[in-house]
Amino acid sequence: MRFGAFGVATWVLAAVSTTGVCGAQARSNGISGQAVLKLTQEYVDAAPKRYVGSEGHMAAEKFIKDHFKPEAAKGNFVVDEFVARSTPAGPFTMRNLIVKFPSAGPAKKDGVIVLASHYETNFPLKDINFVGANDGACTSALLIALGQYYREHPPTGYSVWLVFTDGEEAIANWSASDSLYGTRHLAAKWSGDGTLPKIKAFILADMIGWKQMKIDRENNSTPWLEDLLTKAAKDTGHSNYISSQGQAIEDDHLPFKQRGVPVLDVIDYEYGTPSNPEAYHHTVQDTMDKLSAQSLQVSADLFLDLVKLVNTH
Ligand SMILES: [Zn+2]
Fold first, then answer.
1. How far is the CA of 135 from the centre of ligand 1 (A)?
2. Ion ligand 1: residues, Cβ under 5 Å
């Protein structure tokens, strides 16, 4: 992600309780934040460096695929492979990974809710020890956990598709042509094959595992979806994790927004210290110790509730 053209981050001290309403313990009717944290650790261990074209990137793909064997057996795990031909470092083969959970009724609705996260790490950081614990890893783990949930509790309204996006990060310097490779490709493809009008909401997770998480209002997101995020936070008792302040962020939701899809970026773009709010972003300090099961619990609760709310919107 990148801050929008006029973006100047305003540091909001995250006034979060360590003993949140829901706690980090396993939940009988939802997703355990502790389990998401464990999955994140396993993902980072399996594929610490996941920049495009690397062995670690392939290990990341395998890790994700291995968690969706039942869906693959049903033909509901789709690899969307394409070549990004003109990156600053030459052509790269990239792959978006899509997992489909069709609605099982009885209130089956014609339409799809997409939940997305990028799974690769930043190519320009390939020579430093950058693992992207908060930036890409924890939200990939969150999507895997959401998939495990929907395997056991199939969607009853709209279908739910998970999209692990590739090539979100710039290969050299962020620009309209050097960023968002995977989602630019997928939005164009789905526009061409008639899928796009079926997408009722494209909901993106980015950098929402930090222990001092405060989710921002993101001004490129569709207002009614931002309002649903506020409602989801209220419903789940997590309003203290949501900020009323925000700015526009360039992220994987943009290619879908530009084609008229309702979009929501659930993001905490501040990730650092009071004196340097982005100190950990795209640095070797984006490590597992920055995350907490409680923040991942909040994120999981919000995503599950958002899907319910979109269904009744
Ligand atoms: Zn990043």
1. 5
2. 135
